[in-house]
Amino acid sequence: MGEVAARDDIAEMVKRVIDMRSDTVTKPTEAMRAAMASAEVDDDVLGYDPTARRLETEMAKIMGKEAALFVPSGTMGNLVSVLVHCDVRGSEVILGDNSHIHIYENGGISTIGGVHPKTVKNNKDGTMDLDLIEAAIRDPKGELFYPTTRLICLENSHANCGGRCLSVEYTDKVGELAKKHGLKLHIDGARIFNAAMALGVPVDRLVQAADSVSVCLSKGLGAPVGTVIVGSRSFINKAKTLRKTLGGGMRQIGILCAAALVAVQENVKKLEDDHKQAKQLAGGLNQIVGLRVDIDSVETNIVYVDVCKNSNTTALKLCEYLEERGILVMAGNAYRIRLVMHHQISSTDVQYTLSCIQEAVAEAISSEHAGKSQAIN
Ligand SMILES: Cc1ncc(COP(=O)(O)O)c(C=O)c1O
């Protein structure tokens, strides 16, 4: 922590809230607001919004797929994609037990789509073992009893696993497995650009094996709203109908797509800085007595830090301490905090955060020692 500048000096420099709760918290940049103000728009439900078309064409090209569709959220992107692939009742999808679709999307694939989830254990790196995926595929001979496996879902980067990246080789292997069994492959690519950047591979190559990808524009890329799903033209045609069914057909969405275009054009390259800052933060946190970070697992913009049980503090107490000092982070559980980097977090913000956390933990530990020596006296 020697390089960490004196807290008071940095506090002087930090005049605003430092929001590390998620990469969804970014505010539109001036360029985005200007693009929104001057966006050419029309009715997108009728298919005439020129800015939406421009974004969809651009995203299809970047992702190496035939077509794309703007949807309001990542949740709707995943839901529509799963429902297009599983359009027969009694379909089953294989997905990670720690995946966003399974945990955080209200079970929408079941409650709305009648799709049965078959979970496979997510390893710490976000993968599922190939042999476990294969074993989870239902034997078509048992069709009298079993649901029918139709889809495999991956998540890249894997949020709950700390933003870990699935490699091209792994994704290709899952794609081959899917093909061998006549299944489709969907990638929840809410942070696929983070993964591509961290792996150093073109994003279209990374998702080559996938039949569909849901790409969030409102996470690390910083657009205020929106996700784009990509896939074949026939997939997107069906997705458009489902989007309307779910109430996601919106009219003059060029306003939103204009900001998203700026995000794609200007912010992809900034992800590299987010990843560097996440590593810097992780390294600093790991040097603080009473905290622990699995440094090797920090591959992109998400940092999970464990609060040691003997540090006399908890995740919640630390969150409160930081909030009083203008820093917002999220408690994952009683002893785990999540901090997420994005383009509106500066290196100074990281330094200030580190010094506040160091101070909080040091105070907690010393108050415990003081309490013990008082008890002895
Ligand atoms: C991996 C992943 N997938 C999907 C989503 C859903 O996105 P949204 O919040 O836009 O519905 C999120 C949101 O945080 C996510 O982290």
TrEMBL record:
It comes from the Eukaryota. GO terms for cellular component: cytosol. It is an enzyme of class 4 (lyase). Its cofactor is pyridoxal 5'-phosphate. GO terms for biological process: glycine biosynthetic process; L-threonine catabolic process. Threonine aldolase involved in threonine degradation to glycine. May play a role in the removal of L-allo-threonine. This is low-specificity L-threonine aldolase.
